[in-house]
Amino acid sequence: EVQAAMRSKLKYESYAEQAQRTKLDKLERKQRRYEIMDELMRCATNVKHLISPMFRYKITQQYLWKVLSEARKEGLLFCDKLREPQVYHRLMAIKAEITAG
Questions:
Q1: In this structure, is residue 6 part of a structural domain?
Q2: Residue 4 domain-assigned (yes or no)
Q3: Which residues lie below 8 Å from residue 50, measured CB to CB, with a gap of 6+?
Q4: Is the entire prediction scored with pTM above 0.90?
Q5: How far apart are CA 83 and CA 92, in angstroms?
Q6: Which sign does the torsion angle of CA 62, 68, 69, 71 carry?
């Protein structure tokens, strides 16, 4: 039993590993933000005006990353994907949630 337990991977991670993972997550989020912003620069002004005030919130960034990933999979432009009714309405709903508090 002891040998089997020693061979199995520990279920916890050290503080150093956790800190490293957190650092990598932050770098990945930063890279995603830059990719999203780069794509947004090519979009229409009304889309920029909708997204700009709420871009600092993680929920907005996560949703926009999901939309960008879907657009790339489908071979669409990010701007065109943002103009789809269900995506645009979801962005409006996120904006309403944020402004409501």
A1: no
A2: no
A3: 91, 92, 95
A4: no
A5: 12
A6: positive
pLDDT at 66 over 90: yes
Q: Which helix (H) or strand (E) holds 31?
A: helix 15-40
Q: Within 13 Å and on the Cβ side, how many CA atoms surround 88?
A: 12
Total domains, the chain: 1
Evaluate whether residue 32 is within a structural domain. Answer: yes
Question: In whole angstroms, how far apart are CA 33 and each of 3, 61, 92?
Answer: 46, 7, 20
C-alpha neighbours within 13 Å on the C-beta side of residue 74: 14
Q: Residues 5-52: pLDDT tens digits?
A: 555 555 565 777 777 788 888 999 999 999 999 999 999 999 899 899
Which residue range forms the structural domain that includes residue 24?
A: 12-100
Identify the sign of the CA torsion 65, 91, 79, 76.
Answer: positive
- The 10 Å Cβ neighbour count of residue 82 is 22
